[in-house]
Amino acid sequence: MDATENQEPHQPRPNRTPNLLFPLKPIYVFSILILFLAISFSTNLYRRASLFPNPNLYKEFLKFIHFTPNVNYHNKVTEPPYCVLWMAPFLSGGGYSSEAWSYILALNNYTKNQKNPFFKLSIEQHGDEQNIEFWNGLSSEMRNLAIQLHQNEECRFNQTIVICHSEPGAWYPPLFETLPCPLSGYGKFMVVIGRTMFETDRVNPEHVKRCNMMDLVWVPTDFHVNAFTQSGVDPTKVRKIVQPVDFKFFDPYKVEPIDLASIGRSLVLGFEDVNSKKEFKFVFLSIFKWEYRKGWDVLLRSYLKEFSLVDNVALYLLTNPYHSDKDFSNKIVEYVENSDLETPVNGWSPVYVIDDHIPQVDLPRLYKAADVFVLPSRGEGWGRPIVEAMAMSLPVITTNWSGPTEYLRDENSYPLCFEGMSEVTQGPFKGHLWAEPSVDNLRLLMRHVMSNPEEGKSKGMQARLDMMTRFSPDIVAKVVIDNLHEIVEKIG
Ligand SMILES: *[C@@H]1O[C@H](CO)[C@@H](O)[C@H](O)[C@H]1NC(C)=O
Ligand SMILES: *[C@@H]1O[C@H](CO)[C@@H](O)[C@H](O)[C@H]1NC(C)=O
Ligand SMILES: *[C@@H]1O[C@H](CO)[C@@H](O)[C@H](O)[C@H]1NC(C)=O
């Protein structure tokens, strides 16, 4: 999902041990202990289930994917004849990962309710490194489903539709260390589909070439259909397949807000009155990977210029490292010190960085604790946290460009204006363009949503409704299945 994800694909994922620079509150020590126990427990689990194979051991992988024809195959009349092998970073966390999960959960439910589904689904880890912390944060239902779908077997090459759900650099032959998709190159499987997206205004020539090697290319939005075809991807191969959002999981009526004062957090700017139990009047939440593209600089600048301590608001950032260390507090302080921002007379409005790993199962409670979700990104593939916030009925403020234009409208959100396009200045996508979100407009919208809570609530309600009617798991599962049907009918 992240353009810059491809920039240093060989760099190992940063160490995820808890940052001990911050004072250890008792609750924090407790959570470290829990985390430790969870890791030691699940390490055994995954070894047994072999869900985290070492990418070097190619043979190990082959053990789990039995494409050898089964002699009894034709007698199993109730078995669906086709296989769909979905290869994605299921165990990695991040954009592609959560997107892939949303599809297989949707497809699994959909096919479960059918008497004779025409395919059986199996999954494989591909496209990014495994992250044990992410795995541990999944519900046991999801983990069990992963293990179950991973063990599906007995499919013929020529009856298998492979979906390579990742950035094109991971496709066969991969440009970095990962299980190749399709496994053994092109031409062997019935159909190979590349599912991908991008965050700038174009697709680079290497990726275009890789897209054109696929039988089909699935992208999530009209923005991508245009960007991909204009960059040279064969238009007859490109299909728009939107993404599901699990509105039953992200349901504001089902969860209690997480207690923001009790989670591991660092106060980076502003004051915390430890004697006062009073809540902030208004909480801004942002969730993103720490990279320039996400516009964290725009967010800090706008927030710090617009608000001061007297406003009684707070900004919470849930961020994770992207090829960087996780000392975000220092990065923020450094940014502010090197900027022209002046400390308000009343003092900075508080900025918190959430240090705890928030397990996926607790995400709805985190959204619930916020009043508005804000992400002034320069470019997004889809924007998972945005649609999750919308499903949670939060008003969202986010840049009105790229992927999110698929679902943002004045009635369901606060689309953020941008001041033209700016150039990507680093990495292999140097020279591509993305949007430069407007600081002035962001200030205005943040102030506006805070001053008009009723309007924000009604946009939030509309947002949830839009998510349910356009991107519900059942609706999107049907879109996927109809497309698969079409493929099978053309070939079969
Ligand atoms: C799948 O179905 C179960 C129960 O049948 C339901 O609880 C769950 O929310 C569904 N998940 C999705 C993604 O539709
Ligand atoms: C698939 O391959 C098997 C043998 O490997 C062959 O018998 C069968 O006809 C093939 N099916 C299709 C649809 O090509
Ligand atoms: C958002 O962008 C679309 C074009 O993609 C435009 O039609 C719409 O007016 C914009 N909305 C706002 C609030 O600027």
TrEMBL record:
One Pfam family here: Glyco_trans_1_4
Superkingdom to which the source organism belongs: Eukaryota
Keyword tags: Membrane, Transmembrane, Transmembrane helix
SUPFAM superfamilies (alphabetical): UDP-Glycosyltransferase/glycogen phosphorylase
Sequence intervals crossing the membrane: 27-46
Family matches, as PANTHER family: PUTATIVE-RELATED
Full protein name: Glycosyl transferase family 1 domain-containing protein
Organism: Penstemon smallii
